[in-house]
Amino acid sequence: MLTVVSLGAYPLAATIFAVTAGIGTAPDAATLSALAFWCAQVALGIAAVGLGHLLRTRTPILAPLAAGLLLLSAFAHAASAGLMLGRAAGQGAADAWGANALAMLALVSLSLGTILLAVALFRSKLSIGWVGIVLLGWMVVEFGLSGMGLWAMLAGAAMLFTGFFVLAIVTARSNLAVWTTAAEMATQPVRREQPRRSASIRR
């Protein structure tokens, strides 16, 4: 939802070369867009850590890799949002090479993290493999069809919202034992089963 707000408040929808001009003509909208985008990255980072923890026992290699890449993407995109806030406040444009490198890091880590998360969902056998298809479909729409108009951007945002909303429900319904630490497990009393008496022994 925060991503949708960020896209809607962004003062332009043309090309990346018009970003500075758009921020200059609509600084308030640019500030709102950057703040919403930054909050969306915070939410993505929290979701990445939670999903990595939830899936770590089922996919011990894919889940940490996906979580790490998505967390890296969240940090890189949050830094990009900070650059947008600085330009909206009239602090001047950032170094073009540094901004492009940061954007490339965010894009690559987001793409790889999403793909690995989709594969982890397929292999986790949680009956939500279709969410991985939704996430992969979002990548196709976001990176392949976003230039076709506003409908593509809204469709991509809807797919992303649907995928993570379902994942939030699955996380909320997960077993509490998944979130129990080793220290907490050690302090829990051990249940000892009573030995079963043989049915042949009767008094």
Q: What can be said about this structure in brief?
A:
By secondary structure, the chain is mainly alpha-helical.
Q: Would you give an account of this structure?
A:
- It is a single chain.
- The chain has one domain (2-187).
- Helices cover 71% and strands 0% of the residues.
- The chain has helices at 2-9, 19-25, 27-55, 62-88, 96-124, 129-144, 150-172, 182-187.
- Helix 3 (27-55) packs antiparallel against helix 4 (62-88), helix 5 (96-124) runs antiparallel to helix 6 and helix 6 runs antiparallel to helix 7 (150-172).
- Keywords: Membrane, Transmembrane, Transmembrane helix.
- The chain crosses the membrane at residues 34-55, 62-85, 97-121, 128-145, 151-170.
SS summary, helix count: 8
- Count of the separate structural domains: 1
Which of globular, elongated, flat, extended, rod-shaped describes the shape? globular
Overall number of strands: 0
- Strand pairing plus helix content: what structural class? mainly alpha
Order of helices and strands: HHHHHHHH
Oligomer: single chain
- Main sheet overview: none
Strand % is under 5%
Which ranges are low-confidence, i.e. pLDDT below 50, for 5 or more consecutive residues? 1-23, 198-202
Query: What's the overall average pLDDT, rounded?
Result: 73
Helical content band: over 70%
Radius of gyration: 23 Å
Termini, distance in Å? 69 Å
Keywords: Membrane, Transmembrane, Transmembrane helix
Transmembrane segments: 34-55, 62-85, 97-121, 128-145, 151-170
